[in-house]
Design brief:
Elements (H helix, E strand, L loop, with lengths): L9 E5 L9 H11 L3 E4 L7 H15 L5 E5 L2 H7 L3 E4 L6 H8 L4 E6 L2 H8 L5 E4 L17 H10 L4 E4 L7 H6 L4 E4 L1 H4 L4 H22 L1
Parallel strand pairs: 1-2, 1-8, 2-3, 3-4, 4-5, 5-6, 6-7, 7-8
Length: 220
Amino acid sequence: MTPSADPGTLHVITDETLQARFSHVDLARIGAEGGADVVQFREKRARCTRELVQIVRRMADVIAGTGTRLVVDDRVDVAVAAGVHAVHLGRDDLEVAVARRILGDAAVIGATVNSSSEAVSIARQPVDYLGVGPVFGTRSKSRPAPTLGIEDLRAIVRLVDRPVIAIGGVTVDNAAEALAAGAHGVAVLSSVACSRDPAAAVRRLREAIDAFRSAVVGRA
């Protein structure tokens, strides 16, 4: 399967558990205004499906017309109910092939992988991009998978024919390192959501990514 769309180079993941100052809707707006290609809705608490759908719809409203894509983490049913055509699936979520049948060929589907073997296996499925990590460690999970590091990230990039989005401990200071290892883009959570100034954090990440890509083009 050929990926249906460019997955973007900067994914901002929303969160209300690591911090309480900014709502999912706030972070969606901040991400879009700062130049994020993707805003991912991430909610790990037990909340009713109707409430989740309402939140996603409000997020879609605040980023409408910005060019930023909204992605729903984990919940294909919530994405469908909210009219969102993009999901990111974790290791314990619905199988990629089943999600593809539900969402259709035009939808964007990403999947999390934590090892080379998982990456090779998932890349054979109808997925548009792989979220690979944690690359630098993570604060967003109580029981995270082992940290991969740059060399494992580089190895995975070489093994698969899908764009790789690096996740886990990504900051403005190391985003270029992940890109230099071959990642198509990066996904960030705590470095934006837990920042004193999330808007500035998104802008700095956007600038760092764009500067790296411009330098690569200039050397070509």
